Amino acid sequence: MVTKAMKALVGAVAILAICAVALVACSLSASEQTGNPRSPEDAANNASQLPISQAANGPSTDEGVIMTLGGSADTYVLTGEEYLEAGCHAIDPDAQNGSNITDSVQVGGTVDTAVPGDYQITYTATTENGEVATAQRTVHVVDSFEGGKAASIPVFMYHYLYHPDDPPANIDANYLSVLDLEEHLKYLTENDYYYPSYQEIRAFAEGTHSLPAKCATLTFDDGEWNVYTRGGDLFRQYQVPATMFLICENADIPELIVSQANPYITFQSHTYKMHNGGSGIGRGGLIHAMTQQEIVDDIVTAQEILGTTEAVAYPFGDNNEDAWAALEDANTQCAFTIENRRIKPGDNPMALPRVRISNGNGGQTFAALVAADPA
Q1: What are 216-229's pLDDT values in tens digits?
Q2: How far apart are the C-alpha atoms of 147 and 319, rounded to whole Å?
Q3: Using an 8 Å Cβ cutoff, are 200 and 149 in contact?
Q4: pLDDT value at position 238?
Q5: Which of 204, 244, 270, 318 is 20 to 30 Å from the Cα of 252, by its Cα?
Q6: Average pLDDT for residues 172-188, to the nearest whole number?
Q7: pLDDT confidence of residue 28
Q8: Hey, which residues does 212 pair with through a beta bridge?
Q9: Phi, psi (5° rounding) for residue 66?
Q10: pLDDT at residue number 62
Q11: What are phi and psi of 167, to 5 degrees?
Q12: CA 108, CA 243: separation in Å to the nearest integer?
């Protein structure tokens, strides 16, 4: 059983290290759903069964470069299955010539999934001044997961946060109290949930990769500022990763992804300009009026702004076969709709469902929604 002390130890090795000109040897390198939808118009000897535990994904913004691992810092893979490298994003808030230094990240370490045990993967980012920052992932190759394998997994769809002492004027189903969010995060942490990467989610949907029964992914559509001001510190406190799906035509996005950089937040695409009406099909999203190439161009534009390519949330949930092909062309791992259910093997990675979180969904409701579904 992994103790809290062991978690703290693993977390400590993931803390950012900034070293002036250090030498490091490395070997590799949709805001909408039923309820109140917003329309476009409006170790080997003991590794046979290890518990699923979490460690810190990286440093805080006060420590220089922010490194955000894809998925869990403690990654679990069954013996004989493929280890899916999820990478690490890096932001240098002090950079003068571009804060996103993910392209500099080098990956060191190997994993042999034929042999149960623990393997270390190290990520090293280099700043424009030649300084280096590191983060670490521990990959646990195990014969079985504590609690069994998942038959389905939930990816949760949140939107906006508020505090009950300062509620918004026009509160609707898309708003969640930050007190309820803390109950969600506390439950996940206390019950040792696993946070899969988008590479793992895709492979699970394709039926080629197993995940622990206790599994969860948190996503927030639109990326409004209240999510950072209300939730950012909570993600750090509970060490739970979250994805922000950003509308990339908004002028403040480049500043936001630097000023709100967080080792537990990844910024992904809610498309560039497709969060608009214009088709009269489905929920009326612009995507239905676009060609496949226009969709590719839109997605690539958003990716260039964000510096990430792993995931997309379709605005208003609208999607079609042209969109699926376009996102594959843009090297997207997963694309999400607003269909309200869990992901199961056999689902289309380019049209995955999510579980909606609505105003009033407190700890008890969340516990039921996130409950393990063992195969």
Answers
A1: 999 999 988 899 99
A2: 35
A3: no
A4: 97
A5: 318
A6: 97
A7: 34
A8: 149
A9: -100, 120
A10: 38
A11: -70, 150
A12: 25
pLDDT tens for each residue of 237-283: 999 999 999 999 999 999 999 999 999 999 999 999 999 888 888 88
Q: Specify the pairing of strand 175-177 against strand 334-340.
A: unpaired
Residue (of 293, 301, 327) closest to 312 by Cα position: 327
Least confident of 128-137, 141-150, 197-206, 274-283: 274-283
Which of 304, 173, 180 is closest to 230 using CA atoms? 180
Mapping DSSP onto H, E and C, the string for the chain reads CCCHHHHHHHHHHCCCCCECCCCCCCCECCCCCCCCCCCCCCCCCCCCEECCCCCCCCCCHHHCCEEEECCCCEEEEECCCCCCCCCEEEECCCCCCCCECHHHCEEECCCCCCCCEEEEEEEEEECCCCCEEEEEEEEEEECEECCCEECCECEEEECEEEECCECCCCCCCCEEEHHHHHHHHHHHHHCCCECCCHHHHHHHHCCCCCCECCECEEEEEECCHHHHHHHHHHHHHHCCCEEEEECCCCCCHHHHHHHCCCCCEEEEECCCCCCCECCCCCCCEHHHHCCHHHHHHHHHHHHHHHCCCCEEECHHHCCCHHHHHHHHHCCCCEEEEEEECCECCCCCCCCEEEEECCCCCCHHHHHHHHCCCEC
Q: Specify burial of residue 346 (Cβ count, 10 A radius: 0-12, 13-18, 19+).
A: exposed
Residue type at position 159: H
* Backbone torsions φ then ψ of 362, nearest 5 degrees: -85, -165
> Is 1:49 a contact under the CB 8 Å cutoff?
no
Tell me: pLDDT of 206 over 80. yes
CA 351 to CA 75: how far, in whole Å?
A: 25
